[in-house]
Write a structure and sequence with these properties.
Thiol Ester Dehydrase, Chain A; alpha+beta; globular; 19% helix; 2 domains; twelve-stranded antiparallel beta sheet; 9 helices
């Protein structure tokens, strides 16, 4: 090949700088975005995610266990599905966002198996401009598999700077997939559910409404979060560009990126999994979720669960609803002693109550699980 660069003069007037994401003026209610790329999840990737994020449920680790429970193969962790679903949409909807304000109604209508290919779509629901200030955009996002079945569905709110980039026109003619009205039917086990591969304290009978579970282990986050962010296809530079994170002044004065929120949720649910979801057969979903403080490399995460209710489903299954709280740099017992019942007050509701936010609380949500009975 012949070198050309010396023979072609530099023309600085021909410089361009591509921009991704959207500013507030680029959104329009009803817009539907088909997100780029998509991803095929192979077995090794699925198991690596489950082990890295401390999943204890054998459904995501042990193919023979999953088959004995009636599934065709081991399942991809719902937290991996959620992380990918969020990430697929970042280039279109939130790469310019200043903050992710929360999630609503996260559901998993169908299981994801190794070999499945996921793609994403987003529909804009509401835009709240504020004069000269960042506004709020509410949208819903779905991931679909190769059979066009929704496998993850949620709503999300982000804070977006004012202005306009002039991104591609809206796709109102594209139909956004509605979540199924019927819940996924759990398959029948082959000869009864397997025993001996889970602990003895996470069956339906072990939970009591009102009890608080202090999960003992913590997990220190290292710079591993940076490659995991891009492996899961999140393109927001806040999570892997130190200079951007420092200039954005969102990293608590540290010249390191902020941990992608989906990873935080995955680690917190993983820290709680031995005590709450180890014997779950399905993750029924999450009502709302809020990131109340940023997490950066070097922070140590902990989890607390509060059991809210139980419900019978059948002779061998029941539902367990719990509040899940993520902490950083304080052990659950110390946090409970320091803050008492105030620990369980939503951070977004504290200002009207005249309460100070808890600096060690990083995430909170409510989740509902379908859990095996001991019999």
């Amino acid at each position: 090949m012949k070198e050309l660069s010396k023979a072609i003069p530099v023309n600085l007037e021909m410089t361009r700088s591509p921009q991704y994401g959207r500013l507030l003026g680029d959104f329009s209610v009803g817009d539907v975005y088909r997100h780029p790329r998509g991803i095929t999840i192979d077995r090794a990737f699925a198991v690596e995610f489950a082990t890295t994020f401390m999943e204890a449920n054998p459904l995501y680790l042990n193919a023979e266990y999953a088959r004995a429970c009636g599934y065709p193969d081991l399942l991809v962790s719902p937290m991996m599905v959620l992380n990918i679903t969020i990430s697929l949409g970042v280039q279109n909807d939130s790469e310019k966002a200043l903050a992710n304000l929360g999630y609503e109604d996260i559901t998993f209508p169908q299981p994801v198996l190794p070999g499945d290919t996921l793609r994403g779509m987003t529909q804009i629901l509401k835009i709240e401009p504020k004069e000269g200030r960042p506004g709020i955009v509410t949208f819903r996002t779905a991931a679909l598999n190769q059979r066009d079945q929704p496998v993850c569905h949620f709503r999300r709110k982000i804070m977006v700077p004012p202005g306009r980039l002039g991104r591609e026109p809206s796709k109102k003619e594209v139909r956004f997939p509605e979540p199924p009205t019927n819940r996924f039917q759990i398959p029948e086990p082959k000869g009864g559910y397997p025993t001996g591969l889970t602990g003895f304290q996470s069956y339906f009978e072990n939970f009591t409404a009102g009890e608080i579970i202090l999960h003992p282990n913590g997990r220190t986050v290292t710079d591993e979060h940076i490659p995991w962010t891009y492996r899961l296809m999140n393109t927001h530079p806040l999570h892997f560009d130190s200079l951007y994170a420092t200039q954005a002044k969102l990293a608590e004065g540290k010249e390191i990126p902020v941990v992608y929120g989906g990873l935080i949720i995955a680690w917190i649910t993983g820290l709680a999994s031995r005590d709450t979801s180890e014997n779950a057969l399905w993750d029924l979903g999450y009502t709302e979720g809020y990131h109340s403080q940023p997490v950066t490399s070097g922070d140590t995460l902990f989890a607390i669960s509060r059991i809210l209710s139980k419900g019978d489903e059948s002779s061998h299954l029941g539902t367990v609803t719990c509040r899940l709280i993520g902490l950083k740099d304080i052990r659950p017992r110390d946090a409970l002693q320091k803050y008492g019942a105030e620990l369980f007050t939503l951070e977004v509701e504290k200002k009207p109550l005249g309460l100070e936010k808890i600096v060690e609380k990083v995430f909170e949500t409510e989740r509902k699980l379908l859990v095996k009975k001991r019999g």
